[in-house]
Amino acid sequence: MTLGVIRTVGDRAYTEMESARLVVEAGLARLESPAALLAAGTAMLRYGTLSAGLRLSSARYPDRTAVIDELGTLTFAELEERSNRLANSWRERGLKPREGVAILARNHRGLLDSIFAAAKCGARIILLNTDFAGPQIRDVATREGTDLLVYDDEYADMLSEVSPRRGSYRAWTDDPGEDSLEFLIAEGSPASPPAPGAEPKIILLTSGTTGTPKGAPRAEPKSLAALGGLLSKVPFRVNEVTECCAPMFHTLGFAMSMLTLGFGSTLVIRRRFDPQEAIDSAARHHASTMIVVPVMLNRMMDLGGRALTGRDLSALRIVFVAGSQLGAQLCREVTAAFGPVVYNLYGSTEVAYATIATPEDLAVEPGCVGRPVLGARVAILDENGRRVPVGTTGRIFVGNVIQFEGYTGGGNKEVIRGLMSSGDVGHFDSAGRLFIDGRDDDMIVSGGENVFPVEVEELLYTHVSVREAAVLGVHDEKYGARLKAFVVIHEGHSLTEGEIKDFVKTNLARYKVPREVVFLGELPRNPTGKVLKRKLQDV
Q1: Which distant-in-sequence residues (6+ apart) come within 8 Å of 359 by Cβ?
Q2: Averaged pLDDT for residues 91-112
Q3: CA angle 249, 282, 112 (to 5 degrees)
């Protein structure tokens, strides 16, 4: 198959068979005891694939550590029992299948308890962004239909006006009372909840970097290709340790935490990201995988070589990164620090995954996002929906088996011949590697020339004094539009607007030189590291 495209029944059959082979190779499929098979099969029939993965791991490895957080450790058997108890307590309080369970929590066991318990109740699971402001959270919670609310104590004030009919329950709290998850878990029955008669549904929210976040529901996967796509590029294995730094309310952190637990591997999480603690924890727990967004890697690299000195990271085989653009310069720095272990995924909340760049890809082209994964279709189309030649920039369209079902508030991404718009523009090189050239609404026409801000951003990151950079188009009376750059410099360095302009002029065409440069102490970002360009518009 070319570029992983599924075009015929034969291709689909091949993809499923190849996915099955990869699942066996990863150690996920093996001869099981009748008890383990019965437990997993029953969970699948009752609650769907989300809970079945945990049930299988708890049957296979009941005493293995499933989760390490700031409260300590939980085994797979304990995690399974906690979610049973919580689900039964919620059912007693009136929670019904297909009702909405909204969760506003950082990375800790309470978030996992809530996800699995809600799944066992057949609920719609709404993962709220912990970076939202109070009004935004209230609006989203109301819009998505919140029947039951779970939240960390730190968000209590901003949720005071949300009064779901099935109650509000505190996840992370220093004062556990009758409205805390721990109370409900302690009093709930450990028995497996009855079948809810409805499959759970996950609702992930878009990043909202340019507007109001939208709900993007996704049904549980019914095909091995959903897992095979990842395994076709990344060597995940069972019974390992994953250091998950990415927030679990986001697609990356959620998907990777579910995969980790389904693989019987240990998930290491903390409520807040600290670059040195993440490195130390990966060394201390002999993590084989680290899940991060690019800004987290940037902060690790800012620590300098001392951050890795004396830390044994020999077990680390995979640094899995997604969520925003990695960039060639940061990729080089991370590879130099950790070795050839970087896997860079390209996708979105709506289209899920499209391509993954392996260490081999990045060694040749550190700025690429790799080739399409098994079972994915990726095409570059022009404004008329026609494929463009190799090397030509166009709109990126993606097809796979786990795309979202349309926004909860109505509407969808543009679809052409079964392929969904990712919202980005890019191009393929002659080796089939994909490069992202920017957002399809970021391109500006300045003096008659097409300009993509991301190209200038990439260049600025290579300057020895630049720590962060963002470039966007703004209105210009003379040229129609012009580039405006926002730059954060490294501590102890100095840089002027003229030096920035000269640097760009030396390396790129004259019309790509920003006409204005603003120096900031930091760039506004969401928890997954995406720059909030709507906030920069007012600077």
Answers
A1: 335, 340, 341, 342, 343
A2: 96
A3: 30
